[in-house]
């Protein structure tokens, strides 16, 4: 028997130990980034979600000015958490359009009355069709789009206070 | 007992309320009329990963988003697209991650195909002594 082979079980144990320890210390993130970043916004046209705001189509997102596209839903709790930061972005001059995911007009109107409405246009995506076109896998998500309608960034999850300057800079850079 | 019931119902209610109240997309749980197209769509759905519950295929998942994906798959197949075209449409958006049939020729996914063969060879090598005829006198 090769003497070195004696150490094989220990080496294997070390290997498995390291694998499990990394899994415990750094759990894998299950965030699926969209492959549409860097590509033009796919063509879509969504009906309006509420009476107070016009409908949204991909043409509205390529009018020369960088914009944000926020995907939200009234049934989504982190969307409430990010609402004040979206308002801050809007007050700082960002144009924010929105897609309401799997939602009803009444619920969306209630949500906006309660948590504020930073949106210029809101389209309603009742079957996640446009979300799938965008490579988006949940709510909330926010896309930064340049004036030519190219997606330059995808923010997954709710926008926190510390993300606001970062997103404003991305909008500035996209000019 | 009553307290326990209340506790259990609280645990059950919150996740339900965190879901959308809208009905599923038209073809999420409805088969296509053409049995051949339905079979093709079904086979593809078994090989597409749910975005929400990431260890399930969209055929197995009850997540609303998986239902929306099933509906899209069926609608595209019904419109005459090939299953492979629908798969690449999704891979283009979500990466190879979304498909349970990873390409062999990709830098990231080839070990998935090679690893079982390597492990089998290693096992044979380890077990090779067992297959030898016992020597005389042993």
From TrEMBL, chain A:
Q: Which InterPro entries match?
A: Periplasmic_diS_OxRdtase_DsbE, Redoxin, Thioredoxin-like_sf, Thioredoxin_domain, Thioredoxin_ResA/DsbE_sf
The UniProt entry, under CDD domains, shows:
TlpA_like_DsbE
What PROSITE patterns does the record tag this protein with? THIOREDOXIN_2
Which SUPFAM superfamilies does this UniProt record tie to the protein?
Answer: Thioredoxin-like (SSF52833)
Q: Which residues form a coiled coil?
A: none
Disulfide bond as a keyword of this entry, yes or no, is: yes
Keywords for this entry?
A: Cytochrome c-type biogenesis, Disulfide bond, Redox-active center
Task: Tell me the compartments it is located in.
Answer: Cell envelope
Family annotation (Pfam families)? Redoxin
Q: Which positions fall inside the Thioredoxin domain?
A: 35-175
Per the similarity annotation, which family is this?
Answer: Belongs to the thioredoxin family. DsbE subfamily.
* UniProt protein name: DsbE family thiol:disulfide interchange protein
TrEMBL record, chain B:
InterPro entries in the cross-refs? C-type_cytochrome_biogenesis (IPR051263), CcmH/CycL/Ccl2/NrfF_N (IPR005616), CcmH/CycL/NrfF/Ccl2_sf (IPR038297)
> Which Gene3D superfamilies does its entry note?
Cytochrome C biogenesis protein
Q: TM segments? A: 104-127
Identify the domain of life. Answer: Bacteria
- For this UniProt record, give its keywords in alphabetical order, as a comma-separated list: Cytochrome c-type biogenesis, Heme, Iron, Membrane, Metal-binding, Signal, Transmembrane, Transmembrane helix
Tell me the ranges covered by the CcmH/CycL/Ccl2/NrfF N-terminal domain, including all copies.
24-135
User: Which residues belong to the signal peptide in this entry?
Assistant: 1-18
Biological role: Possible subunit of a heme lyase.
Membership in a protein family: Belongs to the CcmH/CycL/Ccl2/NrfF family.
State what protein this is by name.
Cytochrome c-type biogenesis protein
Q: Which organism is it from?
A: Parasphingorhabdus flavimaris
